[in-house]
Design goal:
The protein is an alpha/beta fold. It is 34% helix and 27% strand. Strands 1-2-6-3-7-15 form a six-stranded mixed beta sheet, with helices on both faces. A hairpin with a 3-residue loop joins strand 10 and strand 11. Helix 1 runs antiparallel to helix 3 and helix 3 crosses helix 9.
């Protein structure tokens, strides 16, 4: 399977699939995976769906995203290393899921692999998937290293703030739009600092000033806040309404943070698969956001996040993956699927 697995990943990486433009890759996967023994189709959102096994049997659902951010290195291989946009985030994890599901024991179980769209933007593909499927167990594909298991991802709030002030001379003591915007940003910073005493990045709300523009008459900000599970969003929004300074505030995204039960069967099965390959599993809490944040609150089933690759390479010009690690991750996930299948069959 190794040569076929490597060829699949390289072909996936060679097909550009920036968020909103994933159709070519989706069509490739539906056509290719039909030759692997999957029943395939494109759903209404543009997700590529591949099913293997009895549709009436208990379902293990594997969710990985097809889309990438723009740019990245040219696709090339140097020894064990495959370079290219998506090798890590997250075509490597998605290809791992495909290969593991193609090899896993099929008796009394069904595997559904979903390549979803627009994870890098607002999660439209995962949102549609969450309404259409009800799995018994599910995995989300993101890079955590072949011996790592993701158990938590922070949420995200996206704010757009605009404010205007009458045009005045710079010597005027009147508040300028640029000053009002700066004050709003500092209010967000101070609020986030005030609601936690934890030093751990996962447990703290972390605001980022993504964009800023304007002058003394008009100013605009785009702010993202990465939030931990349990963050009090209504209280935050109530606070924001008190500090807008007659500006306009739009909240584009309200994705909650998620932390799964580390004792759940999905996490335990992955840990067993990692130990079988001679490593000690590492449970990881991530400060980014993933499709886990969308599907886990709706499904409320045992879940975990898994995939090869170093997440520090996400979105960088040096994105690459070790093919040996990719192969080992397939073996880990295949073993985990077999463990889960045995349990679901009873």
């Amino acid at each position: 399977m190794s040569e076929r697995a490597e060829a699949l990943l390289r072909r996936m990486v060679e097909i550009p699939s920036v968020s909103g433009d994933e159709k070519r890759l989706a069509v490739f996967l539906t056509e290719e995976l039909a030759t692997w023994g999957f029943t395939t189709y494109l759903d209404e959102a543009g997700n590529a769906i591949a099913r293997r096994g009895d549709p009436a049997a208990p379902m293990i659902l594997l969710v990985g995203h097809m889309d990438t951010v723009p740019g990245g290195p040219a696709v090339s291989r140097a020894g064990d290393i495959l370079h290219g946009r998506g090798t890590v985030d997250a075509k490597g994890p998605l290809a791992t899921m495909i290969c593991a599901a193609a090899e896993a024991d099929l008796s009394g179980i069904q595997y559904v692999v979903a390549g979803v769209v627009e994870e890098e933007t607002y999660g439209r593909g995962a949102t549609h998937l969450a309404e259409c499927f009800r799995p018994a167990v599910a995995f989300v594909g993101e890079p955590n290293g072949w011996s790592g298991v993701g158990i938590g991802y922070k949420g995200r709030i996206m704010l757009r703030y605009s404010v205007s002030r009458p045009a005045v001379h710079t010597a005027s003591p009147a508040e300028k739009a640029s000053e009002a915007a700066a004050a709003f940003w500092h209010d967000v910073l101070n609020y986030c600092a005030s609601v936690t005493t934890s030093e751990k990045a996962f447990d703290r709300p972390i605001p980022t000033l993504n964009e800023m523009s304007g002058d003394i008459a008009d100013a605009h900000l785009v702010i993202s806040v990465r939030t931990p599970p349990g963050f009090d969003l209504p209280a935050f929004e109530a606070f924001l309404r008190t500090v807008t300074r007659d500006g306009e505030l739009v909240i584009d995204d309200r994705t909650p943070g998620v932390r799964v039960d580390h004792r759940g069967v999905a996490v335990r099965a992955l840990c067993a698969g990692i130990r079988a390959q001679g490593a000690r599993p590492t449970l990881k809490l991530k400060t980014g956001t993933a499709d886990l944040n969308i599907v886990e609150p709706r499904w409320q089933v045992p879940m975990a996040v898994y995939g090869p690759g170093d997440s520090a390479l996400d979105h960088t010009d040096d994105e690459h993956i070790s093919l040996a690690e990719y192969t080992k991750a397939i073996e880990v996930l295949r073993d985990a699927l077999n463990i889960l299948a045995a349990g679901l069959r009873g």
